[in-house]
Amino acid sequence: MALENGSTRRAMMTFTLGALFGGVIAMLVVSSEVLRDGVHNRVPVHGLGRPQYIRTAGETFRTGRDQVRGDYDTEGETWLQGGEENVNPVTGPSPPLKVITPTEFQAPYQVQETSRVRVLCWILTDPENHDSKALPAYDTWASKCDRTLFITTKSHDFLPTVVLNVTEGRESLLQKSIHAFKHVYQHHLDEADWFFKADDDTYVIMENLRHFLSDKDPDEPVYYGFRFNSIRPDTKNGYMSGGAGYVLSKEAVRRLVTQGMDDPRKCRLRSKAPEDLEIGRCLEKAGVMAGDSRDEEGRQTFHCLSLQDHVLGNLPEWLHRYSTYPVKSGPDCCSKHTISFHYTEPIMMYVLDFAIHHVRPYGQCDMQDHN
């Protein structure tokens, strides 16, 4: 009987996730069928505080503070869409300038103010994934960072990139990460208090990341993420999963670059070890603490697998073996203030973003999740 009940619950979870996924996809597809002179035109998708776009036939868009097509006027608090410079080779000139106020794009519930927590996000990607993964990430969560950098080997018209002269491949992830940290330290250290690293298939709830960091001191040498036990004897404090994303304080970045990467005894810059493991070792040798990112109920906030895997219980044995803290599945898998999931398919980026920011059970107190 217990086995049957478990199977029933899993089936119901699968059905619910499938229904949500299908419903949102259908809505997005139908709402994007807006034609102008027989050609698909841009369609805004209501985002949190500023407009976002689905990329439709003939056009590619990006969102964010430093907009290529359109600008966000922070003084007048208006979004400028269109303009003579916005000429598409397929559709021709954009429509006349249209001014859209941010209130048109607010989420349907109140968001607690955490903008004082400044977060720079840098995201590992490569030219092959620019359109398929990096752009969906930027369309959804990554444009909500105070500054966003995509670490790659080729520039892109609609992504803020840092172009490195390295060979792409998994064996180059450590080199890309090292160059990224050095670039951030040299050029952007004073622009943020916290520095978040992610992959291009990581989905992040930036509001929850800022909430998590709001009572923490960026002058403390600490970093947070999904914590693994180290398999190496010279690393006692473990390391954070690269795919789930990890966030460093300003002091942690400073120590990593000046006390770690400048000392080959602490940081093996040419190591063939996995990027996240070697960065964890380097941070420990530089005197940076590995923090506990679980919530008050002991549930994880960073997740190194997909939402489906954690909810439905498709967790591999190695995850239980190497995770520093107990890993659960089902309703107890994840903190109510969950921060990230790895292995997020591009279309699921849009589904999650819509479901998280625009679906709210009727009668639920607007602010109860923030108390």
From TrEMBL:
It catalyses: an N-acetyl-alpha-D-galactosaminyl derivative + UDP-alpha-D-galactose = a beta-D-galactosyl-(1->3)-N-acetyl-alpha-D-galactosaminyl derivative + UDP + H(+). Its cofactor is Mn(2+). Transmembrane segments: none annotated. Signal peptide: none annotated. It is an enzyme of class 2 (transferase). It holds the Pfam family Fringe. Gene3D superfamilies: 3.90.550.50. Pathway: Protein modification; protein glycosylation. Residues 128-285 form the Fringe-like glycosyltransferase domain. Coiled coil: none annotated. Belongs to the glycosyltransferase 31 family. Beta3-Gal-T subfamily. Glycosyltransferase that generates the core 1 O-glycan Gal-beta1-3GalNAc-alpha1-Ser/Thr (T antigen), which is a precursor for many extended O-glycans in glycoproteins. This is Glycoprotein-N-acetylgalactosamine 3-beta-galactosyltransferase 1.
